[in-house]
Amino acid sequence: GGRAMWTTMDFDFQHRFLLGERNNMIWGLEYREVGTYAPGGNFFLTFEPDQMSYRVFSGFVQDEIELVEDHWFLTLGTKMEQNNFSGFEIQPTIRLLWMPDETHALWGAVSRPVSTPAIYQEASTMNVGPSPYPIWPTFARLTGNTAFQSEKMLAYEIGYRTQVTERFSWDIATYYNVYSGLNGFVFDSFYPEDTYWVMESKWLNHVNGEAYGVEFSASYDVNDRWRLWGFYCYQRTEWNRTPEEGMFHFDRVIPRNQARLQSSWKLAENWDFDAALRYVDNLPSQNVPRYLTMDLRLAWRPTPYCEAAVVGQNLIQPHHWEFGPENFGLGTTEVRRTVYGQFTLRR
């Protein structure tokens, strides 16, 4: 039972211009108004009040400065936002690019993005579960918190790219992210209700942590019709949290290693064949094993305006897990082998 309806009105404006000979400026404004109507709700999700509206005013400005002609570029920018939940937010960024010649580029960046609160974190009651432990049915009840603030990140990045030959290029990037005020839970009450038990917590900004990793990719044009592309990513996360929050925040909620090898082959003027081999590491905290799978796509374009394709996804195994069941049944995702046809018309 229960139903919900969202209405959104959005206006945005952008303007780009040159300021002198070395400054490439862009700025913009946006206004968004969202209305929600969710009368009654149900056992798993209710909103209080059941009818709300909120507004977001935001603007950004960015200046790309050519410090040394064709070699050094500095980009400065910031986004500013006023919203009903966390008030005024500012998200600055700075990026420096060095190009010693046309085939090499070295860059670094520092930025401070934020994730503003969602409406369910402020004004909802969610019942999640039930949990298989203990034996009696137990639900996690997450209640809205009007004091919930934005989740913040300070991101540091360094990268390098080179065009080795006309057909071969590769790049590498490293990052280090510092998180503060991420959502977490402290279940401070446990009580019976009807035929089940309830563990209750508000949404809290209790989790801090860091993530770091490296990404490598390479592209090789075998000939004018065939391109190979590869990608590898290694990443680690470390969280600081209270013991009560362990059931919802794991150190391995993202795979430590991921890799992808992709082939794009133009068989004929109007025939394309794409293949991708993907490897994803295991998630020990959710008992999800590592997996290797493949996607294939064969497309035919009888005219420039239409395309027919046959697509196969996750073809190696009949199915695999991407996320496992947590203590209260959150995030369970099983992906099955899929084959389907696709027809696209373009104007």
Please tell me about this protein's structure.
By secondary structure, this protein is mainly β. The chain has one domain (5-249): Beta Barrel (Maltoporin, Chain A). Helices cover 1% and strands 69% of the residues. It has a 16-stranded antiparallel beta sheet that branches. A hairpin with a 2-residue loop joins strand 13 and strand 14. It is globular and about 70 Å long. The two termini are 42 Å apart. The relative contact order is 0.08.
CATH H-level name... which superfamily? TonB-dependent receptor, beta-barrel domain
Radius of gyration from the alpha-carbon trace, in angstroms = 25 Å
Strand content: over 45%
Largest sheet: 16 strands, antiparallel
CATH topology: Maltoporin, Chain A
Question: Strand pairing plus helix content: what structural class?
Answer: mainly beta
- Percent helix, as a range, is under 10%
Number of domains: 1
What's the CATH class, please?
A: Mainly Beta
Low-confidence stretches: none
